[in-house]
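User: I'm new to structure prediction. If I give you an amino acid sequence, what do you actually give back? Let's try with this one:
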Amino acid sequence: MERVDTLSIANDRIKQVDLIITESLPVQVYLQIRGQFHTACGGYPIISDRQNDEKFEVTVAFDTQRFPEEETPCTAGDSLIFHPLQVYGLVAGTYEYVINGTYTGSFELKSHNLIPRSLVKLPTTN
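Assistant: Good question. You get back a string of structure tokens that encode the predicted 3D arrangement of the chain. For your 126 residues, that looks like this:
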């Protein structure tokens, strides 16, 4: 049986990628992906990522088998997706990200990304 690839990479749908980093510890990092994603039609993207050393490799794709574009009853409008990068526990340093091999950028963690000891409350024993 021949396998049919039902995922379509979304490079043509992505219009802009911005990085959002929170200021409080532990730091949280999000990729804000703007584009035309047919989310009003139920065509949500499938996002996967993996970390390879100091690089986050993110893939944005669509299941074209579930929502064939020619059968979609509505038009695509601009949509925003916030995708969190798993940065908790990372050491201080510079990290890169790449989305679908096209959209790239980097960010810096200025300190180890852990909950500050001053906020950790251990239970007391009597």
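You can read the tokens as a compact description of the fold. Here is one thing that stands out. DSSP finds no helices and eight strands in the chain.
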